[in-house]
Amino acid sequence: MITPPSANHRAVMDLGREEWLDALGMDAADIPKAVIMEGSWWRAQRTEWRLSYLDDVRELAFPDMFYGFWQGTPIVYSCVYGAPRAVELAHLFGVLGTPRMVMIGTCGGLDPGLATGDVVVPSQAVAQEGVAHLYGTVAENTGIVPSDPDLNALGRAALESRGIRTADSLHLTWSSIFAQSGAMVEEWRENGYGSVDMEATTLFAVAKHFGYAATALLVVWDQLTADRSFLDPLTAEEQTRLNTANTAVFEAALKTST
User: Fold this and answer.
1) b/e for 97-119, b at 16 or more Cβ within 10 A?
2) What count of other Cβ atoms lies within 10 Å of the Cβ of residue 257?
3) pTM for the whole thing?
4) How many angstroms separate the CA atoms of 120 and 109, rounded?
5) Does residue 1 surpass a pLDDT of 80?
6) Looking at the predicted structure, is the pLDDT value of residue 93 above 70?
7) What are the two backbone dihedrals, phi and then psi, of residue 25, each rounded to the nearest 5 degrees?
8) Class of residue 45 by CB neighbours under 10 A (exposed 0-12, middle 13-18, buried 19+)
9) Can you give the three-state secondary structure of 139-178, one letter per residue?
10) If we measure between CA atoms, which residue out of 172, 222, 177 comes closest to residue 200?
11) What are the CA-CA distances from residue 93 to residues 29, 76, 88, 100 (Å)?
């Protein structure tokens, strides 16, 4: 859990708004209205694709943090992978006072009722990724952190208006896509988890710490209880659904940002 600043030592967590603005090369008037993060391996492809929606894009002083405008609204986009990277933007722009953040990307389905191309918008998520608990906002007995209900509703509405099927399940954020076994998948399902990713709960925990709204729009790709991972081929129909949903989550995230 984060402890109060020491009288003798000062570190990154102790830095304030003005210091971060200076480090990023930003003015207070430039603070984004929203941050959209995307958990993906395909950083170059995703970044080029997503930034094509924005105007007047520039990279901030920190790498892979891109500032631009969508219909006049200042937005930051970054492709992140895993909790250690996601926490950096969640914390940094939380200090600056950005009012809302959205995590997009893909997730593994644990609920047999979830199909590739569905989008999970979890109202609560369980932290097992090693970062969220540091912010003192994780329920001690369950590990649960809630997302923002109003932002969730906006995200679901934006997705469903695009013909995307949404779901709400007890979501798990885990530390590594490689460090999971069949026995773990079985245990997760028995514990009632419907989906799993690597970043969402981190964002929710940091958001609760700083008091901003956060949601996650996560496209189901893997179907883990059917022993199908991202390595297994999709049918043409499944690939179309996956591609359509990957487009829709970013457009929905933009819609919730205004």
Assistant:
1) ebebbbbbbbbbbbbeebebbbb
2) 22
3) 0.95
4) 9
5) no
6) yes
7) 70, 35
8) exposed
9) CCCCCEEECCHHHHHHHHHHHHCCCCCEECCCEEEECCCC
10) 172
11) 14, 9, 8, 9
Strand 195-197 to strand 171-174: parallel, antiparallel, or no bridges (unpaired)? parallel
Length of the chain, in residues: 258
For 66-135, give the secondary structure using H, E and C: EEEEECCEEEEEEEECCHHHHHHHHHHHHHHCCCEEEEEEEEEECCCCCCCCCEECCCEEEEECCCHHHH
pLDDT tens for 132-148 read: 999 999 999 999 999 99
* Closest alpha carbon to 49 in 254, 257, 255, 256: 254
Paired tokens of 216: 């996650």
171-174 and 124-128 beta bridge pairing: parallel
Radius of gyration of the chain (CA): 18
71 vs 54, 78, 93, 257, CA distance in Å? Answer: 8, 19, 21, 10
- Rounded distance between C-alpha atoms, residue 115 and residue 220, angstroms: 7
Greatest alpha-carbon pair distance for the chain in Å reads 60
In order of their start, the domains of the chain are: 12-256 (3.40.50.1580)
- Cα torsion through 58, 44, 52, 76, rounded to 10: -50
Q: What is the pLDDT of residues 206-243, one digit of tens each?
A: 999 999 999 999 999 999 988 888 888 999 999 999 99
Q: Which residue has the tokens 């998948």?
A: 185
- Cβ neighbors of 207 (< 8 A, separation 6 or more) are 90, 94, 101, 147, 148, 213, 214
